[in-house]
Amino acid sequence: MDYEQFVTTVEQEIGDHTPAAEAAAAAQATLQTLGERIDREEARQLAAQLPPELAPWIATATPAERFDAYEFVRRVSEREDVDPAAAQRHIRAVLDALARTVAGKEWSDVVAELPRSFAPLLPRGPHVEVPDLETFVREVSERAGIGQDAADRAIDAVLETLAERIAGGEVEDLIAHLPAELHLPLERGRASVRGQATAMKLDEFIDRIAHREGAGFGDAMLHARAVLQVLRDAVGELEFLDVTDQLPDDYLRLLAR
User: Are 75 and 87 in contact (CB under 8 A)?
Assistant: First the structure.
């Protein structure tokens, strides 16, 4: 997507016959603010995938500032000189265009840095594709470097254990976003704890997975990381934010790409 296409996408997402100049101002304000919020290296990686006219707005040499969504909107509102409601519409439009422009991995890494309060600002829509079972298994197999039979076992073990760790309502939401063949381990895990999230440290989480798939701890860690990464791609960033919001910080080790 080149610069003109990016701005046109923002115009269309905002609607109301938005002038190109207003869309460009929204893009600049949002990207500059995002560059302040995310890690410096991530900002640079994003800039490298953007049209040259947009890259300087997000590239930064300063450390990330850990402000919340309210502050994000306030900064964009101030930069654009628009009210907060308009700033929110513009942010959603720009982030939608950004998600369509950069590689899926880069966008996933950006969202992984943001707290759940950002969920209403993140794009949602038809560009989030849910894979079928064959695709899900193949991607786990490739990411973990294991055969498809082993990937099947890893997926089953990770999903069942995850369903024990998170609330029953969130398990239900995951089920709604996944192929029918993946529902059973989630339902099994939810039933075993009667829908009540079971606190467990990361080591216990991995131990349970290792026991279920008959693997060593190190292999189970690798497999869990692969399954969770594919799960994130499958259900979309907003739904996955709801999952990770229920997990302690040490689980973030499983989400690094």
Answer: no
Q: Domain boundaries in the chain?
A: 3-121, 133-254
- Model-level pTM? 0.55
CA distance 116 to 93: 19
- Give the pLDDT confidence score for residue 131 in this predicted structure: 59
165 contacts 200 by C-beta, under 8 angstroms: yes
Does residue 139 contact residue 257 with C-beta atoms inside 8 Å?
no
Candidates 1.20.1290.10, 1.10.357.10, 3.40.50.300, 1.10.490.110; CATH matching 3-121:
1.10.490.110
Virtual CA dihedral for 113, 226, 180, 96, nearest 10 degrees? 30
SS3 content of the chain, % helix, strand, coil (to 5): 70, 0, 30
Whole-number pLDDT of residue 134: 87
